Amino acid sequence: MSLKRLPGLEVASCSVKELLQATAIPIRDTRIYGQLQIPEYQRPYVWGKKQMLRLLKDLKEHAQLVKPNMPDYYLGSLILHQKGDKLNIIDGQQRITSLLILQQFADNPVSDGIAYESPVSILNIQQNISMLRKLIDAAQISVKGFDLEKINVTLVVTTSEDLAYTFFETQNTGGKRLSGADIIKSHHLRSIRPATLMNSSATRWESHDIGLVSHMISMLAKARFWNFLERREFPSYRDAVQIKEKVVEEFTENTLHNETDKSFLTVEITKNLHGEQMRYLSNLAAVRQPLYDGRNFMNYLQGYLKLYQELFSGMENHRIDARFTHFSKIIINGENGTAFLQDLFRLVIVVFVSRFGYQDLFPFSLWCFRYIYAMRVSNERTVREDGVYRFARESKILDRILHAFSADELIEFLENQTYQFNEANCGPNNVKGRYILMLGQYFDQFDKHTIKTTDFDSTLIKAIKWQTKINS
Length: 472
Fold this sequence. Notes:
Elements: E1 9-15, H1 16-20, E2 35-37, H2 49-65, E3 73-83, E4 86-91, H3 93-102, H4 119-137, E5 151-158, H5 161-170, H6 180-189, H7 195-206, H8 210-225, H9 240-253, E6 267-272, E7 275-280, H10 295-312, H11 322-332, H12 339-356, H13 361-372, H14 374-378, H15 385-395, H16 397-403, H17 407-415, H18 431-439, H19 456-469
Parallel strand pairs: 2-4, 3-5
Antiparallel strand pairs: 1-5, 3-4, 6-7
Helix pairs in contact: 3-4, 6-9, 8-10, 11-13, 12-13, 12-16, 13-17, 13-19
């Protein structure tokens, strides 16, 4: 079926000037009209100097090639959602906004009426205007001949918001490619009603660094994929495209498409002669619970983002044992660690707290460290990503946590695990040797004499027992 035959969809070609002037009268030979606007749940305007100057360069080069009957400069396609007399820009915000910035310096600018609410968008627009003004004043660039009437776009306009986002999520245009986090954000924010709740959710999302959000989404996907009942493989960090596809599928296509906001929590009930007491072991939604569109997913993600920042990024939480924070800073974040083991350790800690809360976090973290980081000394050489993924699969560590009834049960299991120490490449100038020496920065029982000894693990066990006893 062609696009033009889909119900509620119209495809047309026009100049950017015609589009901006179609606030009340439809574009010629179409039913498309309305005031362009940026939905609250859209990502902010992020183009900077590099993208602005590249666009201006392309426009200039095209103008120099213009001959009689030559077509106008083609900006690409714009995806719009028509809602009453409004045209929501679903895809094309970066390019349209950049053109509107450029026309500030051109003759006879066209009124656009677009309002920008995002502080990030406003700041980037101001910075680009300032940058262009300086370059123009210094005669380094020129916007002479800039004309929105000579810039052509293809409009894909639909009255269905879901259809608009289907195009949005699969199309690659001249704009900046959407990340998995961008697609997930747009999917869930547009499900939230009323608008005030949607706006507050968007603000909460934007308050976090996008790198942290993307990392947390990947961690949660791993926690859900590495399930021994329905195990799914998670792509290598080298395959960004596959990671994007997997997280988008898990957190948009596989979510339940209704407005239910339901969370599953772990409850402990203690009975005695005087009655019974009930307490939540954790206030976090279960990491593998069914997820619903909109507020349910947003609250789920926000809860884990907050937890991650409290555990590993210095956000204050008096419930977290200071001994854990100190241990994590010295050993887990130490320069002689490994990124793959660090990620697995952090994922395991997040899953543990989601199940049992903070009460036994410190002793669990030490025994968990011994269990996971055994790969550091049982391997002949460095630890690779595939080895860590294999360990997570074979040990079923996440499943053990989520199926345990108590932290004591988990700690006992970890304490009873054994491994074979590998003495290869343990010199002080080797990665493994430097790692062992680093343990001495935290565990007093370790010093330079522990390298190449067969009692490494017994020493570590004694050190862990000592650390869990002092100041307890």
